[in-house]
Amino acid sequence: MFPARFQPVLFAFIMSGFMAFLMSGILTFINLGWFDAFFSAWLRAYLYAHCCAFPLVFIFAPLSRKLAAKLSKAA
């Protein structure tokens, strides 16, 4: 278990992992179609995507929360 102070970093890591995994798989399939080495190409794309997505989620998640709060009504 991690201390609570690491929650923003863990959130960014997990969220970017999910998003990079799904998006890299979808885009690999759209761009290359199904072929014998599909999973190795997907894994390679995922690793690059996650390396980019992690710092971006870490940076933009607070901004997104603020924007969503401004665009929605309080209950």
Compact overview of the structure:
By secondary structure, this protein is mainly alpha-helical. It has two helices and no strands.
List the helices and strands and how they pair.
Elements: H1 7-32, H2 38-71
Helix pairs in contact: 1-2
Description:
This protein has about 80 residues and is mostly helical. The protein has one domain. It contains two helices and no strands. The protein has helices at about 5-30, 40-70. The longest helix has about 35 residues, at about 40-70. The model has no long low-confidence stretch (mean pLDDT about 95).
Report mean pLDDT, rounded to a whole number.
93
Q: What structural category arises from helix and sheet content?
A: mainly alpha
Give the tally of β-strands: 0
Order of helices and strands: HH
Relevant terms:
2 helices, mainly alpha, 0% strand
